[in-house]
UniProtKB/TrEMBL annotation:
<dbReference type="GO" id="GO:0005737">
    <property type="term" value="C:cytoplasm"/>
</dbReference>
<dbReference type="GO" id="GO:0004719">
    <property type="term" value="F:protein-L-isoaspartate (D-aspartate) O-methyltransferase activity"/>
</dbReference>
<comment type="similarity">
    <text>Belongs to the methyltransferase superfamily. L-isoaspartyl/D-aspartyl protein methyltransferase family.</text>
</comment>
<protein>
    <recommendedName>
        <fullName>Protein-L-isoaspartate O-methyltransferase</fullName>
        <ecNumber>2.1.1.77</ecNumber>
    </recommendedName>
</protein>
<keyword id="KW-0808">Transferase</keyword>
<keyword id="KW-0489">Methyltransferase</keyword>
<dbReference type="Pfam" id="PF01135">
    <property type="entry name" value="PCMT"/>
</dbReference>
<keyword id="KW-0963">Cytoplasm</keyword>
<dbReference type="GO" id="GO:0030091">
    <property type="term" value="P:protein repair"/>
</dbReference>
<keyword id="KW-0949">S-adenosyl-L-methionine</keyword>
<dbReference type="GO" id="GO:0032259">
    <property type="term" value="P:methylation"/>
</dbReference>
<dbReference type="InterPro" id="IPR000682">
    <property type="entry name" value="PCMT"/>
</dbReference>
<dbReference type="InterPro" id="IPR029063">
    <property type="entry name" value="SAM-dependent_MTases_sf"/>
</dbReference>
Length: 276
């Protein structure tokens, strides 16, 4: 991390407070730029306490992000993005009180919303790609597995554009509803088989899969821009669970190479073929 960037941490909370526009709680007027994360969270906790569950307050998200930070998620851009998205709006009302715990939750049709720590970890790894490092952001992103749209909303905080594909029609429709209130202009939702990518939008600077298969579909590599990075959960050759796989598209002296690295074990829903 460069000196300049390190100095910007604690989080510039003015951005967090802007993203609460529409929230009715008193938190928005209280958070100030440069306020320390711990102080802000304590402050927000006190002030949001009387307003019911307080799920729409920035304080709840700040506390989640603070826990993720303590557990090792260091990238301030990712922490900022996670703190800007209201996760409870992407799950059923009955599960809303659990929305700011670091846990995956059912979203219907046998699928789950990913854990915030995993969403954060994957985006942090994507930001380490050559093109993302050069631009400081994710660029044009392809997401496979829209689900409820939560991760797409987080990606949109750090991307020029997000194209997100879902193979289950009811979830595709649900995500459209969920995202209607956010920066939907940056997110294009596609109903289709994500194993084929989305050629009309290619090439992508970043590709992220929210479902894990036994292989990497060749179309993903074909649609990854030079300098771009792909991240996907993938079953190990041994068939023993999944790991996160990162692939970089390296173009040197006119020769294309794909450099692959495996990271920690993860548990994602399966990547399936076709649409339903
Ligand atoms: N990013 C999502 C996580 C959803 S779970 C969120 O934030 O909620 C993964 C999703 O991948 C499921 O909705 C599943 O239907 C979808 N999926 C699985 N295989 C797919 C494929 N081939 N193409 C598109 N979506 C797929």
């Amino acid at each position: 991390m460069s000196e300049g960037r390190a100095k910007r941490f604690p989080l510039p909370l003015n951005k967090v407070s802007q993203s609460t526009a529409g929230a009715t709680g008193p938190v928005r007027t209280v958070l100030r730029p440069q306020l320390h994360l711990q102080q802000a969270a304590d402050h927000a906790a006190r002030l949001s306490a009387p307003t019911g569950l307080g799920l729409d307050s920035a304080g709840v998200r700040l506390r989640m992000v603070q826990r993720l930070q303590q557990e090792g998620l260091r990238d301030e851009r990712v922490l900022q993005a996670l703190s800007a998205v209201q996760r409870h709006l992407f799950v059923d009302t009955a599960l809303a009180t659990q929305a700011y715990e670091d846990t995956s939750l059912p979203i219907g049709h046998g699928q789950t919303i990913s854990k915030p720590s995993v969403v954060g970890r994957m985006i942090a790894l994507l930001l380490g790609g050559a093109q993302a490092q050069a631009g400081g952001q994710l660029g044009k992103v392809l997401e496979i597995g829209t689900g409820c749209g939560y991760q797409a909303a987080v990606l949109a905080q750090l991307a020029r554009e997000v194209v997100s594909i879902e193979r289950l029609r009811p979830l595709h429709d649900k995500a459209r509803e969920n995202l209607a209130a956010t920066r939907a202009h940056k997110i294009r939702l596609i109903y289709g088989d994500g194993r084929l990518g989305h050629r009309p939008g290619a090439p992508y600077d970043s590709i992220i899969a929210a479902a894990g298969g036994d292989d990497l579909p060749p179309e993903w590599l074909a649609q990854l821009a030079p300098g771009g990075r792909l991240i996907a959960p993938m079953s190990q050759a041994t068939g023993q669970g999944q790991v996160l796989v990162v692939v970089d598209h390296v173009l040197e002296r006119g020769v294309t190479r794909f450099v692959r690295n495996a990271y920690e074990a993860v548990h994602f829903v399966p990547l399936k073929s076709g649409v339903m």
